[in-house]
Design a protein that fits this description.
EC 6.1.1.18; binds magnesium ion; Gln/Glu-tRNA_Ligase; single chain; binds adenosine-5'-triphosphate; 12 helices; elongated; ligase activity; about 575 residues; ATP-binding; Ribosomal Protein L25, Chain P; seven-stranded mixed beta sheet; alpha/beta; Glutamyl-tRNA Synthetase, domain 3
Length: about 575
């Protein structure tokens, strides 16, 4: 499920290749001050994309879409995708997030190591590696009178920016001599000024109809410790300026981002063209393209809100199986291929839209139904006693591991006097059209015998504690004449003496509202208080607990939770039900 489906980005790339926009040796060596980016000439990989997360949280399903677009698109064209950490906001960033992000990208099946590119293998980058060259570029802008240090307060700058309908007002510092700005910029770097005292701004046009071109700030003072550069810097570049510089230094051809950056594109182009005119970057320059971000119902996809869920203890952590994070989806049991199928189905478009959560669930079912091994589990057990089978007798039964994959072979399990069945599979007083167990009725115990229900035992509260039945020895599944007795109901079961105990977690939506952060209120008001239900159930004996995903017959798709199973009792997550129970 690579990003190979026809979409507008592919049309752009196809046209670029046809026009030979990049030539063969398109990317000259980066400036001497830049970190040594690539040791070998870049020629075989003509398409370069990048996935540029900020290491300020775990990645979510929206990022998976961006990873799929960027890595998938590069792979489709035999190109390269860079993993670049956009670590320009020291207060919010952490090494732990860097590692979690690398883990998520790899788990999805993508790699920034291109072993097929001799001498050009690792494409892991950090914006912080460019801090020195970015500083030099900023000085060059100042020298060319294209940037100045503004000593207005942040409030004054905001006020003087103007509005959509009125132009901005020039700062009194706008026309200061380059030397004075250079001096101040050096002082900013040297730590001589407090946060917010001044900022470096590009000198473009305070009357531009695009507010992003009204002398945007490109450097601000932040006396903050950075997870990689430590205390080496107390000024940090703004994302909107840093991003095009990073793209150009790395030889990115197609810089793909989400629609909210569309208004930033003129500044992206201004930055690159200006630096190229100054001889600091070589043409051809990267281009920015925007696609609609993924918005999904019943979750929030904002790292800030996900962080809040974690910090305030509304979930058990970033990898809680209810979280729309890649780590959470993974722990829940989602597979990389199901997430890629979801990305493919939701497509790449220019128009914002909302995707229902059920689309992800259906992608998972379609991904797993053809491959997931089958097994039986009982989630709400009540005992079924086969009164005409001696307690020491064991009859081995068989079932296919997968109905359409005979090569997977058969599974075997014991049929014994005491079984577990689902409580809902017995009714003392049957409802209309109820074909399962009730006194006098016959049903098939799946893969085993037809039984006749003979009654039940109840406790002092009237709750059924045992169901009784007699089996018909000649009706064993798979033997000649097994079908002679016709029944209308089939019931799943496991042997009470052989079954494996397990804790099973059944999940519901994390929010009760489809778009919890759409209204005016607090998204936390819409948390579903019943988003997880834990039951003690029984699994078919012989089940391989190391299987990635099972289909439990009648119940849905389940996956073992290795992290939660640490104390011995297997913990199993329901990924999704067999059918969409959420039809809107
Ligand atoms: P968040 O608002 O959740 O913090 P972000 O965009 O600030 O997301 P980044 O770390 O900057 O987070 O994201 C890395 C890349 O992933 C960016 O190119 C961004 O456009 C993309 N991305 C983030 N969210 C989505 C989404 N919902 N759909 C598609 N792409 C996304
Ligand atoms: Mg961002
Ligand atoms: Mg963000």
């Amino acid at each position: 499920h690579e990003a190979s489906t026809s979409n507008f980005l592919r049309q752009i790339i196809d046209a670029d290749l046809k026009a030979d926009r990049f030539g063969d040796k398109r990317w000259a060596a980066p400036p001497a001050t830049a970190r040594e980016l690539d040791k070998a000439p870049i020629d075989s990989a003509r398409i370069r994309t990048r996935f540029p997360p900020e290491p300020n949280g775990f990645l979510h399903i929206g990022h998976a879409k961006s990873i799929w677009v960027n890595f998938g698109m590069a792979a489709h064209y035999g190109g390269i995708c860079h993993l670049r950490f956009d670590d320009t906001n020291p207060e919010k960033e952490e090494q732990a997030y860097v590692e979690a992000i690398m883990d998520a990208v790899k788990w999805l099946g993508y790699d920034w190591q291109h072993s097929d590119q001799p001498g050009d293998q690792s494409h892991l980058y950090f914006a912080s590696d460019y801090f020195e060259v970015m500083y030099q570029f900023a000085c060059a802008l100042i020298n060319a009178n294209l940037a100045y240090v503004d000593e207005q307060s942040a409030d004054q700058m905001r006020t003087n920016r103007g509005t959509l309908t009125s132009p901005g007002t020039n700062s009194p510092w706008r026309d200061r001599p380059a030397q004075a700005s250079l001096q101040r910029f050096a002082e900013m770097r040297a730590g001589q000024h407090p946060d917010g005292a001044m900022a470096l701004r590009a000198r473009i046009d305070m009357a531009s109809p695009n507010i992003n071109l009204r002398d945007p700030v490109i450097y601000r003072i932040r006396h903050a410790h950075h997870h990689r550069t430590g205390d080496a810097w107390c000024i940090y570049p703004m994302y909107s300026w840093a991003h095009p510089v990073e793209d150009a230094l790395e030889g990115i051809t197609h810089s793909i981002c989400t629609l909210e950056f569309e208004d930033q594109r003129p500044f992206y182009d201004w930055t690159l063209n200006t630096l190229a005119d100054l001889g600091l970057l070589k043409r051809p320059l990267p281009h920015q393209y925007e696609f609609a971000r993924l918005n999904m119902s019943y979750v929030v996809t904002s790292k800030r809100k996900l962080l809040q869920l974690v910090q305030e203890g509304h979930v058990q952590g970033w990898d809680d199986p209810r979280m729309p994070t890649i780590a959470g989806l993974r722990r829940r049991g989602y597979t990389p291929s199901s997430i890629k199928l979801f990305c493919e189905r939701t497509g790449v478009s220019k128009a914002n839209s909302r995707i229902d959560y059920s689309v992800l669930e259906q992608a998972f079912r379609d991904d797993q139904d053809p491959v997931a091994p089958r097994a039986v589990a009982i989630l709400d057990p009540v005992k079924l006693v086969i009164t005409n089978l001696p307690a020491d007798q064991v009859v081995m039964c068989q079932a296919p591991r997968h109905p359409h994959l005979p090569e997977l072979g058969q599974r075997e399990f014991a049929f014994t006097r005491e079984l577990w069945i689902e409580r809902e599979d017995f009714m003392e007083e049957p409802a209309k059209k109820y074909f399962r167990l009730y006194p006098g009725n016959q049903v098939r115990l799946k893969y085993a015998f037809v039984v006749t229900c003979t009654g039940c035992i109840k406790d002092e509260h009237g709750r059924v504690t045992e169901v009784h039945a007699e089996y018909l020895p000649d009706t064993r599944s798979g033997t000649p004449g097994a079908d002679a007795v016709k029944v209308k109901g089939t019931v799943t079961w496991v042997s009470a003496t052989h079954a494996i105990a397990a804790q099973i977690r059944l999940y519901d939506r994390l929010f009760t509202e489809a778009y919890p952060d759409a209204g005016d209120g607090d998204f936390l008001d819409h948390l579903n208080p019943d988003s997880v239900k834990t039951v003690n159930g029984w699994l078919e004996p012989g089940i391989d607990l190391n299987t990635a995903v099972w289909q439990f017959e009648r119940l849905g798709y389940f996956a073992p939770d290795a992290k939660a199973s640490e104390n011995g009792l297997p913990v199993i997550n329901r990924v999704t039900t067999l059918k969409d129970t959420w039809a809107a």
